[in-house]
Amino acid sequence: MSRRSRGPDGRTFLKVEPSALPLLAHGVFDAYTKLNLHYSHNAPVTFFEEKNTSCNLPAQIELYADTIKGHENSYKFLFMAKGGGSANKSYLYQETKAILNPDKIIAFLEEKIRLLGTADCPPYHLAIVGGTSAEFALKTAKYASAKFLDELPTTGNAKTGRGFRDLEMEEQGERR
């Protein structure tokens, strides 16, 4: 299913053979058709119409190699059951640096969070991501809402651009 390769920059990476992806997708199909799980994946039929697939396919499958020494041949999996309507509650706001101060960012977030409403089933998981590309922000928000990034460092690093959790901002959000 996989093999180790060396990239042009000399780094070792694990290449997943394309044949592995259908096997993983079939595992998703089996889980939702043989276990007592809720079918909630809607597929577009037209621009304005969607239909429940009754099997939660197509599955979003992303594989990453664990490059920590001693883990080179291992995978990390994150399994997320998609909730009904959750795709409709993802928002991306690209704002200027002018709101990057405590008063303005809190007011901005309170206004946007109120727009979410209460249409879906709780519990709600809220993730707010900043300081990266639009594509990476959405992916990071998904991981953060699944608590997959809870072990991130709590300080940034201007030299490497490493992501971090701002526990003080999280606490402020929880108090409101």
TrEMBL record:
It comes from the Bacteria. InterPro entries: Class-I_Fumarase/Tartrate_DH, Fe-S_hydro-lyase_TtdA-typ_cat. Residues 23-160 form the Fe-S hydro-lyase tartrate dehydratase alpha-type catalytic domain. GO terms for molecular function: 4 iron, 4 sulfur cluster binding; lyase activity; metal ion binding. Keywords: 4Fe-4S, Iron, Iron-sulfur, Lyase, Metal-binding. Belongs to the class-I fumarase family. PANTHER family: FUMARATE HYDRATASE CLASS I, AEROBIC (PTHR30389:SF0), FUMARATE HYDRATASE-RELATED (PTHR30389). This is Fe-S hydro-lyase tartrate dehydratase alpha-type catalytic domain-containing protein. It comes from Brevibacterium mcbrellneri ATCC 49030. The lineage of its organism: Bacteria, Bacillati, Actinomycetota, Actinomycetes, Micrococcales.
